[in-house]
Recover the amino acids of this structure.
């Protein structure tokens, strides 16, 4: 008999609604995917897209374990992901 610990995956949800998508999330999908791949996180994270979060005014946005991150761009998203995954080198 063997036990397997069920590890709850972190969840990254990117808004693929038309507003966020047109204003940057189209590029951020690739950046997030590259980030996860480069750090071997793809198996530990559930990364997927959803329709409009209803927060278009503060987009482009994504959710990290349900917490909304607003006004993201190609620079700020790395810091946001580093903070979430705590991989920043000290
Ligand atoms: S399109 Fe992203 S919050 Fe509306």
């Amino acid at each position: 008999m063997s036990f397997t610990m069920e590890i709850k995956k972190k969840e990254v949800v990117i808004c693929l609604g038309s507003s966020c998508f047109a204003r940057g999330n189209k590029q951020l999908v690739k950046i997030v995917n590259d980030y996860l791949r480069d750090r071997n996180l793809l198996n530990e994270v559930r990364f997927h897209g959803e329709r409009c979060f209803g927060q278009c005014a503060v987009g482009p946005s994504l959710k990290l374990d349900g917490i909304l991150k607003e006004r993201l761009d190609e620079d700020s998203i790395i810091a946001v992901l580093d903070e979430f995954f705590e991989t920043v080198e000290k």
Observations:
- The chain has one domain: 10-85.
- The pocket of FE2/S2 (inorganic) cluster is lined by residues 15, 17-20, 52-56, 59, 61 (CB under 6 Å).
